[in-house]
Design a protein that fits this description.
The complex is a heterodimer of chains A (111) and B (115).
Chain A lengths: L8 E5 L4 E6 L7 E8 L6 E6 L4 E2 L4 E4 L5 E6 L8 E9 L12 E6 L1
Parallel strand pairs in A: 1-9
Antiparallel strand pairs in A: 2-7, 3-4, 3-8, 5-6, 6-7, 8-9
Chain B lengths: L4 E3 L2 E4 L5 E6 L6 E7 L6 E7 L2 E5 L7 E4 L6 E5 L8 E8 L9 E2 L3 E5 L1
Parallel strand pairs in B: 2-11
Antiparallel strand pairs in B: 1-3, 3-8, 4-5, 4-9, 5-6, 7-8, 9-10, 9-11
Classes of the chains: A mainly beta (111), B mainly beta (115).
Chain lengths: 111, 115
């Protein structure tokens, strides 16, 4: 599976936008970019995914670089409940869907 | 949709004992996954089922580990002769074959402590 690289930690002020970067320079043409997050003492939860185009849903936006070698998860207005570890994961369209988590980015929200 | 449930939530056992965990996936989901997570690390894949068939096992799943999903519904993960290195959070997830998003829904996990 292609590897992703994320910063270990980030901080953001409450009610401000947060941009969480992910590098995936070895991504293949059939790899989808998925984001999951894990709140304290909970299992991971799906956030968003995309292939080539930018994506929006109720939780976040996903901006994908034109060459697909990087992406950015955007939380438009961070709240204290968004404090979590965020994982960027590549999943092949032809794979068995197992998730290969890295260490993710620990996001701290400052009140 | 009551979500994925796991039982027990916490288990403390002595080294050498056997333990069994249960996972109840979302009812219409065909696929069920087990992951293990140690402190400060992301979850690591252990095994997955499609209906009752176990289709892949990680090298992390030693001979002391066995998983079953006998009727394609709930699943059990058994660890025999537990070791201190087995202490971790064991996570279960499920997904539907009918969805193209590959979204996996995770349970709250079972935290195992081996003393």
């Amino acid at each position: 599976d292609a590897k992703t690289t994320q910063p270990n930690s980030m901080e953001s002020n409450e009610e401000e936008p947060v941009h969480l970067p992910c590098n995936h320079s070895t991504i293949s043409g059939t790899d989808y970019i998925h984001w999951y997050r894990q709140l304290p003492s909970q299992g991971p939860e799906y956030v968003i995914h995309g292939l080539t185009s930018n994506v929006n849903n109720r939780m976040a936006s996903l901006a994908i670089a034109e060459d697909r070698k990087s992406s950015t998860l955007i939380l438009h207005r961070a709240t204290l409940r968004d404090a979590a570890v965020y994982y960027c994961i590549l999943i092949s369209n032809f794979g068995n869907e197992k998730l290969t988590f890295g260490t993710g980015t620990r996001l701290t929200i400052i009140p | 949709d009551t979500g994925v449930s796991q039982d027990p939530r916490h288990k403390i056992t002595k080294r050498g004992q056997n333990v069994t965990f249960r996972c109840d996936p979302i009812s219409e989901h065909n696929r069920l996954y087990w992951y293990r997570q140690t402190l400060g690390q992301g979850p690591e894949f252990l095994t997955y089922f499609q209906n009752e068939a176990q289709l892949e096992k990680s090298r992390l799943l030693s001979d002391r580990f066995s998983a079953e999903r006998p009727k394609g519904s709930f699943s059990t993960l058994e660890i025999q002769r537990t070791e201190q290195g087995d202490s971790a959070m064991y996570l279960c997830a499920s997904s539907s074959l009918d969805r193209t998003s590959y979204e996996q829904y995770f349970g709250p996990g079972t935290r195992l402590t081996v003393t």
